[in-house]
Write a structure and sequence with these properties.
Number of helices: 16
Low-confidence stretches: none
Shape: globular
Largest sheet: 8 strands, parallel
Helix content: 25-40%
Structural class: alpha/beta
Strand order of the largest sheet: 8-9-10-11-12-13-14-15
Mean pLDDT: 95
Number of strands: 18
Length: 382
Amino acid sequence: MTAIDLTLQGAEVLLPDGLAEVPLALSGGQIADTPVGREVDLRGYMVLPGIVDIHGDAFEKHLAPRRGAMKDLDQGLVAAEAEIAGNGISTSVLAQFFSWEGGMRGPEFAGRVLAGLDEVRDSLMTDLRVQLRFEICMLDSYGDFEALAARHGVDYVVFNDHLPHEELAKGKRPPRLTGQALRIGKNPEKHLADLQAWHAAMDQVPAAVDALARSFRDKGVAMGSHDDRTQADRAAWRARGARIAEFPETLEAGEAAHAGGDPVILGAPNLVRGGSHKGNVSALEMVAMGYCTALASDYHYPSMRRAAFLLSDGGVLDLAAAWGLISAGPAEILGLEDRGALQPGKRADLIVMEPATRRVCATMSAGRFSYLSGEVAARFIG
């Protein structure tokens, strides 16, 4: 689809220094500095930078709406993109597990998702990217993980450790183990034995992670850690080159990341809920203290724009700064200097929004419509 040359008139446009009623010209998929093409009257609406979602896994429900229903992943990705675009997201990083948890989080499924995305990516308007999330206890899978990332050109990986160490260390049976095992078609006793073996071998993990991180760093792959709890956690990952701190669980870890100049990603649902569902540090508190670089959808796409308005309505940040946490901030972390703000020369990634309801009426990615609805659609088409 070819990008359209248009000049949007009459809307309140969110620029880096705030809202202004100025014309916004779009040409060749970029923001232009002079009016071009047909004029579109958008009086009564807002135009904001397209959202850059740096970590989202809500796409999973489109790939397997029921347990075991994992066929035709390409069609599931198409459906996921429709939801993503309808929420004003013009660049979306799909957070895909490579995990011992199996099923939709297992290595085989990760390969299928990446292959499916390779098939459909060029036919979609939204810029869909991938973050591969690796469970570091899987010592026998390091080579497979690195090969998968290389085969599909993955340029962003995050290191996770979701083993229930506390229960395993006490010799207890982790909660939900039986249900988890049956869900992925595995004998519960075999699953428990595997968890115990991975836990027992954790002393071998640091050296293995060091080598893998060194290889990714040499290839220019961005790296992050997930759920840091202490200053020591963040320092260890920073030393490996995993500079992105994703969802730190404590204020100590967030402060350590900020002090070290590491980008901090927090969950928008945490902020909208008023706190973490797991009892971790409040995203709102972290934002107010200046420790947040970007907000991510995590498991709920609508929460991103809701979080930005919650921050601006509550006086925590002005709208430009709050919106920057879901546009310019994540774009900068990802090294995407061509997007995140409505400035000449940047990609024409934008949202048209109804101010009263704050509903997304249109989304454009590189000057191409990925979503268009209602009265705004009539104005663009008329």
